[in-house]
Every structure is written in C-alpha cells, then in structure tokens.
Amino acid sequence: MRDPDRPAWWTNAVVYQIYPRSFADSTGNGTGDLAGITGKLDYIAELGVNVIWLSPVHQSPQYDNGYDISDYRRIDAMFGTETDFDELLEGIHARGMKLIMDLVVNHTSSEHPSFRESERSRDNAERDTYWWRDPRAGFDPGEPGAEPNNWGSHFGGSAWTYDPLTQQYYLHLFTPQQPDLNWENPRVRADVHDVMNWWVDRGVDGFRMDVINFISKDPALPDGVVEPGGVWGDGSPYFTSGPRIHEFLQEMQRAVFADRSGEYLTVGETPGATVDQALLYTDPHRGELDMVFQFEHVSLDQSPGNKWEYRDLDLRDLKTSWNRWQRGLAATGWNSLYLGNHDQPRQVSRFGDDAQYRYESATLWATLLHMHRGTPYVYQGEELGMTNAGFTAIDQYRDVESLNFYADALGRGSGPAAALQALAAMSRDNARTPMQWNSGRNAGFTTGTPWIPVNSNFSEINAEADLGSDRSVYRYYQKLIKLRHESAVVALGDFHLLDPEHPVLYAFRRRRGDQQLLVECNVSGEALELPSDLGAGELILGNYAQPGEPHWLRPWESRILDISTYEDG
User: Fold this and answer.
1) DSSP code at position 262
2) Are 305 and 227 spatial neighbours (Cβ–Cβ below 8 Å)?
3) What is the pTM of this model?
4) Under a CB-based contact definition with an 8 Å cutoff, are residues 69 and 56 in contact?
5) Residue numbers annotated as active site
6) From the CB of residue 343, how many other CB atoms can be counted at a distance below 10 Å?
7) Which pLDDT does position 567 carry in this prediction?
8) Residue 129, Cα to own-chain centre: how many angstroms?
9) 134 DSSP β-pair partners
10) Of 244, 249, 333, nearest to 4 (Cα)?
C-alpha cells in the first residue's frame, strides 16, 4: 500500500484508453481484438503513455458493448483467447507500461448465472443478489405505473422490468439486460472482491470502475422528482454517492490492495460527483480511490438532464468548472483529465474546428487538458485528431443508447432529420468508429467488414499520414506527455486561472517553488490580441511552427511559456 503522504507515481502519468472492438482487428472478422492491440503496442508505447485502460473484454452478450458482463473471469471469444490476453499483458509490461481493466460491478448481464438463478423463484438463494421488488401498492402487476418506484433508466423508459413468473420487478439503471447488483448483500461485495483479486493476481495493475458511485442505493428506493412534461422520475439522489458508498469502497480497498506492495491504480467513474464528494473519494488517508472520473465539464454544452439538446459551449462556464475542480482538489485528492472517451463525441469536432483548423484546435485542447493538475487520459484516435463519425442514416449506428433515443424521438413526434442531427452531435458512436491506421481498405482496421462503418475521412486522417506530417497531432501529444514526465510544476504545481470572464482566451499559471509556467490558448478561429500583462516568457511548446507576435495569438493557437525569470510572473 502506498505512502499517503508522498506524491503517487500516477501524478505525472498519462493513461491511454482502448476500446477493443474498434482498435485493431487481427482476424479479418470486422471486430477489434486482443491480438490486434498487441500488434500496436509499439505505437502506444512510443506516444509515451504510462498506463493502458482496456474497456471490457469479459464474456458478454454485448447488449451494451461489453458493459453487461456474464462471466467476470473469462475473455469473450470475440476478442480472442485467454492466451491472447496473457500475451497482451506481457507485452504491455515489457514496454514499461501498466494495464488497468474496466470493472463493471454496479450491474451484471441478465445472462450472468447469478441473475438466471435469481429469477427462478422468490425464495432462490440468489434472489437478494439483485434488487427485486413487488409492484406498487394498489396496482396490478405489470400494468403501467405499477413499477416499484418511478425511476427512469439512463437509456430511456423505466428502470424496472416486470417478471411474470415471480410477479416482481427487478431494477436496472441502464438496459433491462443490465440488472443492478444489490451491494447491501455482503456476499455480493465478497464476490466482487474475489474477482478483483483474481485479476490482480493474474497481473493487471488496477481498475477503472464503471459508475462506481451508483453501487450504494437508499434501500427504501423512494420516488424521484418528475420534471414538467416528463414521465419518469430522477432517482439519482437515492443512488448517486449513496449512504454506504464510502464504507463499500474502503472495504474494497482493504480486501484487494491493502496488503499488496506493488504500484496499482484505482479510478472511479463518478457521474454527478461534487468536488466535496471527490475529496472524500480520493483523500489518500481514507483508502477509497486514487482518482475520480467526473462529468461536470462534459455536460456544459447540453441542456440540464438531456444530452441530446446540444448547445455551443460557453468557454467561461468551462473555466469556472475546471477552476472549481483544480482549486478544490489542490490540497487533497486527485482528478482525471479528459474530454473524450468511448461515451463522448470526438473532442475536436465537439469543441474545436474539425475542418479548417483541425490540427490547431486538436492540439490546443490537448494543451489545455494536459497542462492542468490531474492525470490526463488519451482516448484512441484523439492523438490523431480523429473526428465525429459523420453518419447520416440510422442504420449506420450501433449504440443502444443512440438507437433507443432515435426510436423514442420518432415516437414522440420528432422528425428523422432532427433526431439524426442530435445523434450526429452527441452519439457515443462518434467515438466508436474504427481506429484509422492508414489510407488503405477500411483504414487498415480490418480486412473484413467492420462492425461499424469507418469514418469516410480516413484517407486524410490516419496514423500513417499523421506520423509523416510536419503538423502531426501525435508528435505534439508526445511532447506534452514528455513535459508532464519531466516537469514537477506540470504534475504537481499550483493552478491560477487568469482572465476568467474572457469569452475566448483560456489562460492560467502553474507554479511550484521558483518555477512558473504560463499557458495561453485562443479558443476561436480569429486572431486574438492578448491583455497587456500576458505574452512575455520563454516558449516551451506551441502548436504553430513559426513564432508569432508575443502579444497576439493566431486562430486556435496555444503556447506554454516559462515565466520563472519574468518580473510579472
């Protein structure tokens, strides 16, 4: 167990996320696999990252692309064999990197043996492994409104599904194929600890824990507030950071990591977490999580509670949010730094200019992210400036959330064009199109038919082209990662936001001891004159090849300046 009073190894680390089915296909069946990842490890290692986060590869019926696990100890055959996994792990360790697995334990698959047993009868020994409840009093089982409470599912509809055999409902915060585990049952918690220990004993270096702050629920399961015009209630006050969450996480830490001497990483995905809650989760003296993965900043460009109502980001809102987290976790605690992952649209399309200034805006957002305090995450293809999918028809989509939204939108009277426009902006499939390796067939991802269409811009945007370009996004990421590895001020320095009300300038200082860095970013497609107190310093890294005017930033220009010896610093 690490010393909580010393900076942890991951304070200057960078994590690379792989979505396996879309990374590299070694068999030609159209789906990425473990052997395909092994074949690309040199590409990842050369980037300079320290950790690979592998999205789920466990046995699963794939209703939610692997986030519905039916056997936690087996590799799904679609990704390869147990030997393939061992070879991947060996290859990662041989290159000096670590591997963390996705741990999905808020829920299982409905095809998990425990759930299959639990639905046999009310008195089955596995019944209390899940949340089974009677219909609402006064209602006939199965009729509309008879659900035990009014909670809505994250993927649409009710969070309860009726079982005619036992005449009860089971809870699922996501799809009906993802029943929620009952963590009030100590046997559930012990089984989860056993699974975690099994993987760590096998050699993995930690876990990214999917929606881990949902595992503790108010046992009373009260109704949630229904927004005007809505049908389903918001149950999140009763399952987000619930009453026993800290007890459960501390118990997990003791059971899995307390007696181990290696270097491990535990990352908790914590939707809805506040700064104060994150402080509790990540205080090293409490023994819960190493860092949180929170969502506040990636919800600022959408209507509250509705990701499909997209609106342009107000940079001042982002500065407020990031400053709150930077300052709030400055003394204790740790945050993950990300803009893209398998659940988010491509950041260069969402926040930048993916046409005229794709290179500049991709590298600007990378600069902003990596120069904050926390652990940066790079999602596959981000380091190439990959863009949103550009899909124009519903049959191109595969994501269950997107398909459910489309069907619901049409059922409520929305036209197909409006629904497709929302999907084009915010669908999770934007991040799940195949990795673009070269300009050959299917972008070099597969020799077969890909499970989801390849982005049509692959002939222009691909790893081979980017690595051979004078304006390489990948090479810029290399420099940023190297800077974090070598600079204590980047990893651990204080954060001071500058000019918070400026609509397009994002500037801040990082300070540690006598060293000070100034980061200046023009988040717009127009030239920007800097305030008089900014601009002076020694250029450490910028995303334009030629130096510009000190007091002007070109479109989407970012600069990192050493201002340690400047009086105004």
Assistant:
1) S
2) yes
3) 0.95
4) yes
5) 210, 269
6) 17
7) 55
8) 27
9) none
10) 333
